[in-house]
Amino acid sequence: MKKIGLMYRSGIWTVKPSKIEEFIKAWQTQVEWLVENHPSGWGGEALLLQDIGNPNKFISFAWSTMPEKTEELLAGTEFQSFMASIKDLCEEIQPHRMRVVGYSASQ
């Protein structure tokens, strides 16, 4: 698969310490919904990483093979409803749209 130019969605999430488990569950539920309901636009893999030294800090990644469909999906009411509900679990959310400009992998 061509990697250069591939679009990623990324987020940096600072979660309220008492809401960590609820956040993880909500994130997982939303990602599963996205993959099931819009499989053509998602690469089939999303990651949620938790900072070992700062356990209320998370970084999420998901890639899209169809950026225009992804943007349409994320502007929709279902995703916006999810974001509104998850805001209550977080102290800060930093969403990012990123594009691969360099790539290396061992064979």
Helix-strand layout with pairing:
Blueprint: E1 7-15, H1 20-37, E2 42-50, E3 57-64, H2 67-75, H3 77-87, E4 90-99
Antiparallel strand pairs: 1-3, 1-4, 2-3
Describe the 3D structure:
The protein has 107 residues and is α+β, with helices and mostly antiparallel strands. It has one domain (7-98): Alpha-Beta Plaits (2-Layer Sandwich). It has helices spanning 20-37, 67-75, 77-87; strands spanning 7-15, 42-50, 57-64, 90-99. Strands 2-3-1-4 form a four-stranded antiparallel sheet, with helices on one face. Strand 2 (42-50) and strand 3 (57-64) form a beta hairpin. It is globular.
Keywords:
36% helix; four-stranded antiparallel sheet; 3 helices; 4 strands; alpha+beta; 107 residues
Strand order of the largest sheet: 2-3-1-4
**Low-pLDDT stretches:** none
Which fold name corresponds to the CATH topology?
Alpha-Beta Plaits
Largest sheet: 4 strands, antiparallel
Shape: globular
Task: Tell me roughly what share of residues is in helical segments.
Answer: 25-40%
Radius of gyration: 14 Å
Number of strands: 4
> Could you tell me the strand content as a percent range?
25-35%
CATH architecture identity? 2-Layer Sandwich
Element pattern in H and E = EHEEHHE
Q: Class by helix and strand content?
A: alpha+beta
Q: What is the count of helical runs?
A: 3
Distance between the first and last residues' Cα: 14 Å
**For the record, what CATH class applies?**
Alpha Beta
Q: How many domains, as an integer?
A: 1
Average pLDDT over all residues = 85
